[in-house]
Design a protein that fits this description.
Helices cover 72% and strands 0% of the residues. It is mainly alpha-helical and 136 residues long.
Amino acid sequence: MPAISVRLIRSALLCLVAGAGLGALLLAAPQSGTHGWWRAHAELMLLGWTGQLALGVAYWILPKHATGHARGAESLARGIHPLLNAGLLLGVSAWGLGLPGWVLAASRLLESAAIGSFVLVAWPRVKPFGIGRQGR
């Protein structure tokens, strides 16, 4: 499994633990949880857990290129994890702590850059079965 996939999947598991813990705290004391913390919980679970897990598995499982770098532009792929997690951290902080709107906008820009990088890396690897295989 590529190191990028390992980092994404491990981060996804950490987000699962953090999101489940935050959700448990919010359920234990519902009157103390503000609307922002519920949104932070949703961000951790949706983007942090499921999003990172999906990206990590997809990067690992998509077919390799027949020539050149097996999984595409590695320098671009290495940026996916830090961009996504920086955006996630900003987003959770913005929702939970009620930070100004520009912090949430910056988090969305970072997350969008990470998703855009993934699309650029993965797009050429999505192909019909049998195309590009040796001997065909």
